């Protein structure tokens, strides 16, 4: 039986749950509720591992406004489509954003399809198990709307603030203002 590892990281956004298979980071979730909703194995050790130590150092630097390199392996479980979307998200530069539609265009090109639904991309973005490091918070609506973040809109805005992202043209839709 493979042992998996879990660590709680206290952050300015609340507790983050880090999960690992010892060699790679497999998850980064906002608190117990989100983590428990995932299809993760049930047996976890809270023993410190090298990868969890590296992720902790990365998060320390990130929350202090630095742009740390990702010097540890990531292993996100998902479908081939989800993994392609997460690859596109991972390429968004620090402090920059892109739209669901732009990612859909790129994914369609990679899959040699005429077009791809931005909603399908949104579903894949929303199922990203390694938040912050696979920066799904950098994806916004085409009209500048700040929507669709599993950790909540206020956390998404805080992450964009940490990265000093120019948000002057962004807005939160009225239906999500209390999210």
Automatic annotation (TrEMBL):
Cell compartment(s), UniProt: Cytoplasm
EC number: 2.1.1.63
Annotated Methylguanine DNA methyltransferase ribonuclease-like domain residues: 5-75
InterPro entries: MethylDNA_cys_MeTrfase_AS, MethylDNA_cys_MeTrfase_DNA-bd, MethylDNA_cys_MeTrfase_DNAb, MethylG_MeTrfase_N, MGMT, MGMT_N_sf, WH-like_DNA-bd_sf
Top class in the EC scheme: transferase
Biological processes per GO annotation: methylation
Major localization listed first in the record, in broad terms: cytoplasm
GO MF term set: methylated-DNA-[protein]-cysteine S-methyltransferase activity
Keywords, alphabetical: Cytoplasm, DNA damage, DNA repair, Methyltransferase, Transferase
Keyword DNA damage: yes
Sequence ranges assigned to domain Methylated-DNA-[protein]-cysteine S-methyltransferase DNA binding in this UniProt record: 80-164
Keyword RNA-binding: no
Active site (UniProt): 136 (nucleophile)
Catalysed transformations (reactions): a 6-O-methyl-2'-deoxyguanosine in DNA + L-cysteinyl-[protein] = S-methyl-L-cysteinyl-[protein] + a 2'-deoxyguanosine in DNA; a 4-O-methyl-thymidine in DNA + L-cysteinyl-[protein] = a thymidine in DNA + S-methyl-L-cysteinyl-[protein]
Top-level lineage group: Bacteria
Classification via Pfam families: DNA_binding_1, Methyltransf_1N
Further comment: This enzyme catalyzes only one turnover and therefore is not strictly catalytic. According to one definition, an enzyme is a biocatalyst that acts repeatedly and over many reaction cycles.
Function statement: Involved in the cellular defense against the biological effects of O6-methylguanine (O6-MeG) and O4-methylthymine (O4-MeT) in DNA. Repairs the methylated nucleobase in DNA by stoichiometrically transferring the methyl group to a cysteine residue in the enzyme. This is a suicide reaction: the enzyme is irreversibly inactivated.
Family to which the UniProt record says this protein belongs: Belongs to the MGMT family.
Identification of the protein by name: Methylated-DNA--protein-cysteine methyltransferase
Organism annotation: Enterococcus lemanii
């Amino acid at each position: 039986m493979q042992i998996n590892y879990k660590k709680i990281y206290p952050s300015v956004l609340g507790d983050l749950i880090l999960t690992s298979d010892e060699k790679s980071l497999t998850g980064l979730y906002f608190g117990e509720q989100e983590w428990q909703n995932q299809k993760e194995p049930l047996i976890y050790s809270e023993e410190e591992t090298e990868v969890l130590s590296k992720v902790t150092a990365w998060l320390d630097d990130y929350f202090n406004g630095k742009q740390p390199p990702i010097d540890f392996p990531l292993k996100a479980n998902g479908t081939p489509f989800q993994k392609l979307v997460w690859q596109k998200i991972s390429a968004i530069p620090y402090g920059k954003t892109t739209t669901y539609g732009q990612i859909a265009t790129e994914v369609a090109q990679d899959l040699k399809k005429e077009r791809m639904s931005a909603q399908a991309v949104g579903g894949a973005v929303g199922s990203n198990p390694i938040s912050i490091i696979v920066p799904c918070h950098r994806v916004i609506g085409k009209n500048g709307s700040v929507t669709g973040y599993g950790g909540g809109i206020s956390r998404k805005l805080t992450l964009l603030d940490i990265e000093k992202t120019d948000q002057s043209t962004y807005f939160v839709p009225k239906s999500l203002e209390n999210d």
